[in-house]
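fold description:
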Amino acid sequence: MTGKPVTYVIKVSRRGTKSKPRLSLGRKDRVKWQNIDDVRLKIKFATWPFKGKNRVISVAAKKQSATLTVSPKFKFPYAVVPAKGVRANQGPPDPPIITAGD
């Protein structure tokens, strides 16, 4: 795919997310997370799928993360982790995932 980049906003809470966007490398799509919960959440990737250095994405309560641009062509499962001391609710059985390709 080519054309104008698309920015996906993934809504996330302690329960995780059901969103599974497919990002285009050709368009250089972007993604950011919107925390709809009342506690800070962390997004952790085992393999970093974005341009720049691998890091934990911290999203304050009721805020959005920085925008990240997709890099390689793979599927990237990730975990949503509540801030330390906050109990997580049971989430969906499958981990959230981002797929990158053209």
Summary: The chain has one domain: 7-86. The first strand starts at residue 7 and ends at 12. The mean pLDDT is 80.
